[in-house]
Structures are given as C-alpha cells and as structure tokens.
Amino acid sequence: MVTGTPPEVLAAVAAARADVDAARAELEDLVRIPSISADPTHDGDVAASADAVAELMQAAGLEHIRQATVDGSPPCVIGEWLHAPGKPTILFYAHHDVQPPGYIDRWSGDPFEPWERDGRLYGRGSADDKAGAVAHVAAVRAWLRTAGELPCNVKVMVEGEEEIGSPRLAPFLAAHGEELRADVLLLADAGNWSVGTPALTYSLRGLAGGDVRVRALDSPLHSGMAGGAVPDPVMALVEMLATLVDEHGDPAFDGCWDDWQEPSPADRARLDELPHAEDLLRDAWGLRDGVALSGNPVVTVYERLWHRPALTVIGIDGHPIKGSSNQIVSEAAARISIRVAAGQDPHRINDALRDHLERRVPFGLEFEFTPNEGTPAWRTTPDGPAFTAAEHALRDAFGRLPVYMGVGGTIPFVGPFAHAFGGIPALLIGPADPGSRIHGEDESLHLGDWANLIDAEVRLLSLL
Predict the structure, then answer these.
(1) Which of 285, 251, 277 is nearest to 434 (CA)?
(2) What is the pLDDT of residues 65-93, one digit of tens each?
(3) What confidence score (pLDDT) does residue 1 get?
(4) pTM for this structure?
(5) Dihedral pair phi/psi, residue 17, rounded to 5°
(6) What stretches of 228-322 show up as alpha helix (H) in DSSP?
(7) Is 87 domain-assigned?
(8) How many domains does the structure of the chain reveal?
(9) Please, what is the angle between helix 20-31 and helix 43-60, to 10°?
(10) Do 77 and 97 sit in the same domain of this protein?
(11) Residue 391 host element (H or E)
(12) Fewer Cβ neighbours under 10 Å: the N or C end of the chain?
C-alpha cells in the first residue's frame, strides 16, 4: 500500500476486497446465461443477461438504469451516478454478450456452468467480458458503501453486441451519444501482460472480411459418375484461399498492404523494451510441439500481433465429414476475417479482397462475395494525466508498474466513441491474460488478477 493514500480510498479498497466472493458469485450467475449475440436462437438469453446486469447496477447504487436499443440491436445497459459537480465524468465500458462455445466436447466442463481450477474461473464470458462488467459494478459499490458517494461522476455502459462487431454502433452513438458524454473512457475489455503484471493497451487492430461462395452445380453429383469432368467447388475454393497469403502466412492478396503504416519510432521503442517471450506465448496459446509461428520471422512477434494485418479463415462450408458420401458438392463457401493495422481502410481492404478472389475463380464457377466487417484500427499516444492516473492505480493494486502494449483484437466501440467527444483519453485495461483463451475452449479468468483489477478501478476513480 502506498504511503499517503487517503483514508477514504483505503476504506473503499478494503470494502472491494471483502466483497470479492460476492462479486464472484455475481459473475458466475452471469456466466450461466448463454448470451450469444451471434445466434438469434439466443436472443432471449442476451435479453436475460441485460436484465441481470441492470439488476447488478441497481443494487450497487447506480441510478437511472435503462436498456437502450437501436434498430433492433441487443440491449445495452446504461446506469449513472452524477452527483459530483465540477468533477470529471468517467464512462465505464464492458459488454455482456459472449462468443459461441465452439466445440463443446473440447471443454473440460460445461462452458455455461463455471468451475474453478488452480485459481482460475472457467466458463464462456468469464474473462471476455462479464468479468469487466462486474468489476465496474464492484468498484462503484465499494465507494458508495463506504463513502456514500463517488469521487467523480460515473456512467456505466455494458453493451450487448460487441462480439458481432457492434454493427449498430454509429446509429447508437447518434441516438444516445449525449447521454454517454464523458471526459475519460475506461474499458475493461482488454487484459494483462501476464498473470500478476497489469497492462495498459494503447492500440487495437481493426477488422475486415466477408463471405466468399463459389457454385458449380444445381445439386450434388455422384463423384464416380462425374468426377474428372465436373470441377469440385471445395477444391476450387481452397485453391483461391491459398493465394491470399504468402509462404509465411502473411496476407498477400492484391492491395492488402497499400495503406499500411509502419510502426512509429515511439511504437518501435516500446516494442524493443518488451521481453522476448515467444515460448511463454506458445504455452499460453497451447501451440502443439513442432508447430512454427506464422508471419515473417524477421519481424518481432509483437509487431506481427499488434501492428500488421493478419488473415484467418474462420469458417468453411462444403459438406461435414459426418454424413459425407461420394459426391461432388454443388457449392462451397468460406468466411474470411482480416485484422487490419493502423491507417488501413477496412472497406478498401474488403474491395481488394473481393477483386483478388474474383480474378482467381477457376473453371468459370459462379462467384459471390459479401462483406460483413468494417472496423478501422485504433491507436493513441499513451500519455497525459489520465494515463498517469491509470498507471498509478494499476501499480498500487498489482504491486508493479503496468506494461504498455497493443492488442491484436478489435473493440469497435473505442475509436468512434473517443472521436465523438473530441479525442478523450481511452484507458484500456481488463481481466484477461495470455492464458485466458478468450473465444476458445476453456476460456478462463485468473481470480487473483481480477481482484486486483477491481482494486485498481476503485483507486482510479479517486485519482481521476
């Protein structure tokens, strides 16, 4: 504990620490709700998750709790406490929707029935990002239970469509921007450098991509009767997909690097200061023995992850192996996801991707491309009083200084919101770590680091 910490801060920190078990129970209840925004059959669960978050906000002492939607979007829960005239306003952000569980048989347990092992809480949404939502509520509750007030004005927004790219973000900000206006944005949807070492994230990659479909036939054909004369759409699609990357696995389609910006000297200096931890990353990712990392090997792994584009085929359709038979399928499709780097226009990237693929369709197959992502990258300069406050809060809570880092993922809300209010500081912290496996099987949260995150948020309100 830092000498000279005001007694009201110490009291709120102590209250938050004493409340961790109750906060964990609240988190577990949220994890049990399969709020999968990408699956319309779970719309009721997304609504139930929003209701649960609203109840937590109400119980914590936040006021004017409401659920906002635009153009049929999943519910976004908003609450506030605005009784500190002359003090800054902080917007806490998190999201309550989650990714699909993927291959359930590859989980060590039910993805929606949380369990603990070795100090980690497992379950879908445990780290991404229901832990962030509960952390915000817990920090507010600690202050109101001890001091009876917050040291600054606070708004809390817990979104319901982040995991599908926040497609209605622009109309949402147009409709609700004024009621969300703030001086500082604090997001708990990022993560720590490692277990025990906090981080402040200052850059995010953007997102582009879409669905490509090729068709050869009106309906499937017997592969013996037609094989050798009728082209196989799956093989045609694979041939096309293989042209999208080079021998290292880096994007290589026409135009994909046209507007890429190299990391600045300051960015490279931050990269050079980081420890080389490829082995730790391999272990955290569960990379199999003998599997090499992709990307140009002369480029550092952190530059590859944070400052360069990357391409992934995240879905592919032909015919499932189960139930397959000796036939040539009529069509094949793939969903392509591209993480775009700073300066790149995701819509231009999508146009380039479509044009590249269309020029390489073999045998004259019918071709269709549908873009479904378009979020630019975000980067800020991590200095100024808000970053200093966050650095001190994380240092005091974790017992060590945070690492300034980038993240290869995308949080669509950050850039548009910060821009809408004149480029206000955006502080990205969060509950995940490299071993959390967010979006994968056995997603988990380190419970000790989560307690430290809540501690840091309590302190940060006072410092801001």
Answers:
(1) 285
(2) 999 999 999 999 999 999 999 999 999 99
(3) 42
(4) 0.88
(5) -65, -40
(6) 233-242, 265-273, 278-285, 301-306
(7) yes
(8) 2
(9) 160
(10) yes
(11) helix 385-398
(12) N
